[in-house]
């Protein structure tokens, strides 16, 4: 009886909590770009979470069923005592001036390459490190990414970032929560990372909005980011694992249309199709090109080459949603519901610049966007801060790093600047220079504390940990701040160079976390990564060195050996000795014979 | 070791060393002659090498460039509009280009409110590497660079359509390819806010007003201070143009006719050009990128019939596609080479002996000056005297080297320098001082050549050649031909030679540019001349003046 009640309760809870939820958000941007974000939320059944201890084998597998939560991921999380995990796969450069703020206020967008952040429960830091190492190595195979290269020399323990990262999970008595972070900026993100991503979904990319996700299309964007977040949420005794997955991308609509019409090869436009400015000279031979057309029409199929294959589950209606933000005065959006036999289209009406459509039926869904003026889009949200980071200098033994922050708003902005650079960049903090620029001109700042309110710095240790810097910076309205400092480049050991040593070494992007007036995070973004050139030897050189060294050694040995073994004589003694050698005697004999022959003649 | 002993004994027995010491002046001359002969020998078949692509990733001319057909209409369209801008001010021209670039969805930045540049960020790119396409408004002939400007706009429009880029493309419009471009490059690596990562390669386009067709292109690649772009980059562009059937010229010699003479001329013109880069008014823009590990070259369209303008664009397109393929920096091929033709080159190992021979020649002459005329102990006895005089001359030169470029009357100043040093009249107490001082100076030049020969072979070779008459002076003094020695000393005054040379080469500006090139372009030739060549000349001149002609003769009688 109790069991039945328990089961009913569980079912009710399941229905209320909606263990799976997915959403596709589309937003046309200026200049014929499109921001599309896929969001998936999956929750596990509540269970009794315990600290996993390898030595006690009895509590190994507590549960073996997570409902929609992927069964493959659960044990990894539990066995490493990971309470929170964030994975970021990002490629490209976010053009904040044209595209505005990052989706989800940057919460799910990483920097170039991949990033891992985990909160691990452990009694001490060594065990946390062990679990971290175990976790990254398992994830490496799981996500086809080089997480296995995550080592102590790139792992950091962020400080300021921790403040809001905590889940409501309370560690067991005697344990602590450790936040570890590592980034691999040179990791290319590609289809092999998308496949495991899709496998985590209960729909496996076969139905619902995830059916749009085709590697060829997702990765042919201007910028794309994938994120996987696992959090532990606890309520009294039971805990739940929550999986939050997103894919965000900026699509160049014109390129998608062109690819659909003309194929992937950028062949020259046919003469009659050229869009020319007729106010200027225009004839068969000459054409002053106009910009992109503004009267365009496209659908999800143009961009993804597919349609949405119905709702994810037949029995569950309101879990899949497409929401669109657009300017209704010049855009018209139609929803198509297609089956093998019929196509039903209806125009979506929009009064609030935002519509939500639920995918409820087992039909193919397609959304068609048409506009008479694609330049008229919803205004982009200006991000609270712009940042650009670059390397300065040219020499192979030292260099500099320069970051410029620009506050475009009328209010001061406060943020945390997190930067971790590899140990082979030896930073000189005393060379830190600040320069500010506003309408009145440029000024060098002597008193750094006017801008840098607080700082945390943990210097690097060669080959075992990176340098780690967190600065709390405040920038006054409408001004920019340039921060620069210098560093020395180290010479690596022969075996420490990667196979493509002449490519240079990637330095991970810096994280900028903007704080609002309550000191809580309101926006987050990354600078670009950097490519650092280190002094790289010619790798055939060691052989030259070996050959030269051997020659010199053998010469030295020969001389020494001669000195030790031979008798020292004067020149005169030598002359006499020389006449008595066998060779000299032979020479004399021949001479004698020759003389005899001559004299006979 | 036994062999070395035998040889040593034989040398001792036959008394070769004293004979050799006696012959040193002649040996020195022979070495110098051999040095020149070595270079002349290089263009002979079998001594040079054919160019080849060393970096496999480049894969030049492997892609079909679609910059053709209707793209030509676009080039024509832009050209007419650019034609209208010629007589406007820089700001008006820039704002027009800015509006056109914004139509292409590109953002525009300025350096010093004058140099416009625009970054095309690679889709999904890491934003860490870039390629630069430079189009000066006025090319090296001071001609309005109409063709190149319209090509650049059409090209960037075409590049923007493709999603294959892994490196950003920077488009730069400096007023000319001289100081303005150099200052942009410097600012890019120090103060600019809008950057696109490290620049791997740069192409400077020059295409004047010849319209739709051109005959062939000239390639310029010499950088400042003896720096050259990686040979792979030049080869890539040249191979691509060969596939297009376009001929090219290096140092004024086209690739369709090649023989010993053209190769020899290309070689020597190349040496001269490399040592004079930055000192003449001929600035092609590739110099501006020197020193920042950026491989750069300039291509300039010549003639007005033959190939069409889009072919010129295709060279740039296809070269960028090749560079885009690179995973590593340019490092496979040669950084030190001398071109004999667009298809032949000699590498550093082959031409270096020439400069080494020249350095040896000076060293032998220096030895001869000591061994044939004085006792070596004498130098050590008067060491303070020598050190004082050398330090005095060097410090004097150092002060002049740093102050003169910042004064306004440097041309007069330089002319006076030569004269003043001949004025003083004094005598050393002993003629041995003269020989010792000459020996030290000649040895100094020898060291200078040795130090320079790898980094800047051309300059080392030319200084060695022009300073060579100085090696005759000890012999002339010994033979009491002091007047001829004085004459040689006047003739081989660095500034006299530079003055005559600049007139002869029809580049009279060399004289003044020598001083300003450090401040404008960071070309250090002035310091080499002022701290290496000139002080040695002064020391030798002092020795000639201090030489007691009459006394010695009397003593001998």
TrEMBL record, chain A:
Keywords from the named record: Membrane, Signal, Transmembrane, Transmembrane helix
Organism for this UniProt entry: Candida verbasci
Domain of life: Eukaryota
Any one Pfam family match given in the protein's UniProt record, by short name: Gpi16
GO biological process terms on file: attachment of GPI anchor to protein
Residues in the signal sequence: 1-17
Name of the protein described by the UniProt record: GPI transamidase component GPI16
Keyword Signal tagged: yes
Lineage: Eukaryota, Fungi, Dikarya, Ascomycota, Saccharomycotina
Any one of the GO CC terms: GPI-anchor transamidase complex
Matching PANTHER family: GPI TRANSAMIDASE COMPONENT PIG-T (PTHR12959:SF11), GPI TRANSAMIDASE COMPONENT PIG-T-RELATED (PTHR12959)
Transmembrane segment boundaries: 541-564
TrEMBL record, chain B:
Transmembrane regions listed in the UniProt entry: 20-44, 351-371, 383-402, 408-426, 433-453, 459-477, 484-504, 524-547
InterPro entries on file: Gaa1
GO biological process: attachment of GPI anchor to protein
Signal peptide start and end residues: none
CC per GO annotation: GPI-anchor transamidase complex
Pfam families (UniProt xref): Gaa1
UniProt keyword terms in alphabetical order: Membrane, Transmembrane, Transmembrane helix
UniProt-recorded name of the protein: GPI transamidase component GAA1
């Amino acid at each position: 009886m109790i069991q039945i009640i328990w089961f009913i309760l569980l079912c009710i809870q399941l229905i209320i909590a909606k263990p799976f939820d997915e959403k596709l958000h589309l937003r046309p941007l200026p200049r014929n770009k499109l921001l599309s974000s896929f969001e998936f939320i999956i929750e596990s059944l509540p269970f009794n979470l315990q600290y996993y201890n390898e030595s006690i084998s009895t509590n190994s597998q507590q549960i073996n069923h997570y409902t929609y939560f992927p069964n493959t991921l659960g044990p990894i999380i539990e066995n490493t005592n990971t309470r929170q995990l964030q994975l970021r796969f990002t490629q490209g450069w976010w053009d904040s001036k044209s595209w505005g703020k990052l989706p989800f206020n940057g919460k799910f967008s990483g920097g170039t390459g991949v990033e891992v952040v985990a909160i691990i429960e452990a009694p001490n830091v060594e065990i946390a490190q062990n679990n971290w190492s175990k976790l990254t190595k398992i994830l490496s195979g799981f996500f086809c990414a080089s997480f296995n290269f995550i080592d102590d020399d790139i792992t950091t323990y962020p400080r300021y970032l921790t403040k809001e990262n905590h889940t409501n999970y309370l560690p067991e008595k005697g344990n602590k929560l450790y936040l570890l972070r590592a980034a691999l900026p040179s990791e290319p993100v590609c289809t092999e990372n998308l496949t495991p991503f899709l496998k985590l979904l209960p729909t496996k990319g076969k139905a619902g909005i995830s059916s749009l996700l085709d590697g060829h299309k997702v990765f042919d964007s201007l910028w794309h980011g994938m994120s996987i977040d696992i959090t532990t949420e606890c309520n009294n005794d039971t805990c739940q694992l929550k999986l939050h997955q997103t894919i965000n991308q900026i699509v160049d609509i014109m390129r998608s249309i062109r690819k659909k019409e003309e194929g992937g090869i950028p062949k020259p436009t046919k003469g009659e199709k050229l869009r020319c400015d007729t106010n200027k000279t225009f004839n068969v031979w000459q054409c002053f090109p106009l910009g992109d057309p503004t009267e365009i029409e496209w659908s999800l199929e143009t961009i993804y080459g597919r349609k949405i294959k119905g709702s994810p589950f037949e029995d569950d209606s309101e879990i899949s949603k497409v929401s669109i933000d657009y300017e209704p005065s010049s855009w018209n959006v139609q929803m198509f519901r297609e089956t093998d036999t019929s196509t039903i289209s209806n125009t979506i009406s929009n009064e609030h610049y935002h519509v939500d459509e639920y995918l409820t039926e087992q039909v193919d869904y397609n959304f068609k966007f048409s506009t008479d003026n694609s330049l008229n889009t919803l205004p982009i949200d200006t991000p609270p801060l712009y940042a650009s980071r670059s390397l300065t200098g040219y020499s192979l033994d030292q260099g500099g790093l320069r970051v410029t922050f620009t506050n475009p708003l009328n209010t001061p902005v406060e943020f945390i600047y997190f930067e971790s650079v590899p140990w082979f960049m030896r930073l000189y903090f005393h060379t830190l220079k600040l320069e500010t620029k506003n309408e009145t001109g440029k000024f060098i700042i002597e008193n750094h504390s006017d801008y840098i309110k607080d700082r945390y710095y943990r210097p690097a240790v060669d080959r075992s940990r990176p340098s780690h810097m967190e600065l709390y910076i405040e920038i006054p309205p409408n001004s920019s701040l340039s921060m620069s400092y210098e560093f020395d480049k180290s010479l690596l050991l022969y075996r420490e160079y990667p196979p493509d040593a002449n490519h240079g070494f990637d330095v991970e992007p810096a994280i900028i976390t903007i704080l609002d007036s309550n000191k809580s995070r309101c926006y987050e973004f990354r600078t670009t990564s950097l490519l650092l050139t280190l002094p790289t030897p010619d790798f055939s050189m060691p052989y030259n060195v070996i050959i030269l060294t051997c020659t010199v050694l053998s010469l030295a040995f020969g001389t020494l050996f001669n000195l030790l073994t031979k008798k020292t004589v004067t020149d005169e003694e030598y002359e006499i000795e020389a006449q008595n050698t066998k060779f000299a005697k032979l020479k004399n004999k021949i001479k004698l014979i020759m003389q005899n022959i001559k004299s006979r003649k | 070791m036994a062999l070395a002993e035998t040889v040593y004994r034989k040398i001792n027995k036959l008394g070769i060393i004293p004979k050799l010491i006696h012959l040193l002046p002649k040996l020195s001359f022979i070495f110098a002659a051999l040095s020149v002969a070595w270079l002349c020998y290089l263009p002979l078949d079998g001594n040079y090498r054919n160019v080849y692509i060393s970096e496999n990733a480049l894969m030049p001319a492997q892609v079909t460039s679609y910059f053709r057909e209707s793209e030509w209409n676009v080039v024509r369209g832009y050209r007419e509009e650019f034609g209208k801008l010629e007589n406007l001010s820089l700001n008006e021209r820039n704002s027009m280009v800015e509006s056109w670039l914004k139509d292409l969805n590109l953002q525009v930045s300025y350096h010093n409110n004058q140099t416009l540049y625009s970054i095309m960020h690679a889709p999904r790119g890491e934003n860490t590497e870039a390629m630069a396409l430079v189009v000066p408004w006025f090319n090296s002939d001071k001609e309005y660079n109409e063709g190149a400007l319209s090509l650049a706009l059409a090209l960037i429009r075409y590049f923007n359509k493709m999603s294959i880029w892994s490196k950003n493309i920077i488009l730069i419009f400096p007023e000319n390819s001289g100081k303005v471009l150099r200052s942009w490059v410097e600012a890019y690596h120090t103060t600019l806010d809008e950057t696109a990562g490290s620049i791997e390669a740069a192409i400077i386009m020059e295409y004047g007003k010849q319209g739709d067709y051109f005959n062939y292109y000239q390639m310029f690649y010499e950088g400042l201070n003896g720096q050259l772009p990686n040979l792979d980059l030049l080869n890539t562009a040249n191979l691509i143009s060969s596939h297009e059937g376009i001929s090219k010229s290096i140092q004024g010699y086209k690739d369709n006719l090649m023989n010993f003479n053209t190769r020899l001329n290309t070689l020597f013109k190349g040496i001269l050009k490399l040592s004079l880069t930055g000192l003449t008014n001929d600035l092609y823009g590739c110099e501006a990128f020197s020193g920042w590990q950026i491989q750069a070259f300039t291509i300039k369209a010549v003639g007005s019939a033959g190939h069409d303008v889009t072919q010129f664009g295709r060279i740039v397109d296809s070269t960028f596609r090749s560079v885009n393929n690179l995973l590593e920096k340019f490092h496979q091929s040669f950084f030190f080479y001398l071109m004999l033709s667009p298809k032949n080159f000699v590498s550093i190992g082959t031409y270096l002996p020439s400069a080494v021979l020249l350095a040896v020649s000076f060293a032998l002459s220096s030895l001869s000056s000591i061994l044939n005329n004085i006792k070596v102990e004498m130098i050590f006895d008067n060491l303070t005297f020598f050190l004082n005089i050398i330090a005095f001359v060097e410090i004097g030169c150092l002060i002049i080297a740093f102050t003169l470029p910042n004064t306004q009357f440097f041309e007069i100043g330089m002319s006076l320098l030569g004269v003043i040093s001949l004025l003083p009249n004094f005598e050393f107490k002993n003629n041995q001082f003269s020989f010792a001082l000459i020996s030290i100076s000649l040895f100094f030049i020898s060291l200078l050549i040795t130090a320079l020969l790898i980094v800047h072979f051309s300059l080392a070779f030319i200084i060695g050649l022009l300073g060579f008459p100085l090696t005759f002076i000890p012999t002339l003094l010994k033979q009491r031909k002091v007047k001829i020695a004085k004459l040689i000393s006047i003739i081989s005054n660095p500034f006299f030679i530079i003055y005559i040379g600049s007139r002869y080469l029809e580049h009279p500006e060399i004289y003044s540019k020598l001083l300003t090139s450090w401040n404008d372009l960071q070309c250090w030739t002035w310091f080499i001349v002022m701290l290496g060549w000139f002080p040695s000349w002064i020391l030798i001149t002092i020795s000639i003046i201090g030489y007691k002609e009459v006394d010695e003769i009397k003593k001998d009688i």
